[in-house]
Request: fold
Amino acid sequence: MRVFVVNSGSSSIKYQLVDVVSEQVALSGLLERLGQSGGDAADHESGMRVVLDRLGPEAASIAAVGHRVVHGGDVFTAPVVIDDEVVAGIRAVSSLAPLHNPANLAGIDAARLALPGVRHVAVFDTAFHQSMPAAAATYAIDRTVAAEHGVRRYGFHGTSHQFVAGRAAALLGRHLDDLKLIVLHLGNGSSATAVDGGRSIDTSMGLTPLAGLVMGTRSGDLDPGALLHLLRTGLSIDELDALLNSRSGLLGLTGSADMRDVMAAADAGDADAALALDVWAHRIRHYVGAYLAQLGGLDAVVFTAGIGENAPALRARALDGLGHLGLAIDADRNGSPSREARVISPDGAPVAVLVVPTNEELAIAQAAAALVG
Ligand code: ADP
Reply:
């Protein structure tokens, strides 16, 4: 069974045709600069026609279309088959993700027009975290204001956290229902999730993907008073938004958002880069400790995404000094390069440490396939 996976941005369409049984990608591609001069198409609708042309006869093999949707608010707790009501529901929560949801909807509208004969499924970045208890999801502000504006923790990267948790259970040969996991999705965007019996019980991102860990360009956690302070210095809201989302994190601390540059600079003796790595690892340990407490036990820590999958030195740094919690890494296992899911803790360690490659497109394809049967 083949699922066509669409990840539609404001000026781009990323797509993959995935066989959910063999897990092979039959075809993939990207349209960029939609609506701009010299771009690949004038808008999402004509872009989707270009994609269909590129698919050629392969289009006939599509059994379902899976769409990545960033924000499902507290309405969508699982993937859903898209109809007009679902489209309206996604539009209704768009104020929570004003850059992303409208772009996702443009892709959905265009794909439903281009491929009217198959079912389309929306898979939400937030849905997996809807299982969080109120204690984890609630911000301690005026409850009327919070309710009126939907201000609560939602969490993101849910598709990845759920997929990686499932793969971790398979690797350990255990039932997900019986496992307490901390999943560290460390990429350009990064988040940590506590997964108890296959359910997210806490996660580091919040109302938006700005909270939590130190990221490529995003600040992660910050005293909300710092925002007030900066606004009072005369910074505009847009400037503050750009500062926190686009000019902070590794970029703000070092001048580069790319972890490889930061590591190279630190190795060359750059003090800013060395501090950035310290802050980055300190924040991860903060969440590992917190989630160990929230879970009341721990079977495994799971590393995934660009940094988590590819940077042994940073995996070691992230868990450095946590031996008293049962967390240890075997240097040889950690250092041997592999594309496969693997254990990097020593045999007999009380807590397993794993590296599990994420695959959000495959996860979306599997979710869509499971829904349409
Ligand atoms: P995105 O969130 O955009 O999907 P990725 O999961 O691809 O991001 O992660 C990108 C990050 O992974 C970048 O900071 C990049 O520097 C980092 N990265 C990729 N390969 C390595 C590596 N071998 N060592 C260290 N960092 C790496």
About this structure: The chain has 15 helices and twelve strands. The mean pLDDT is 97. The first helix runs from residue 44 to 55.
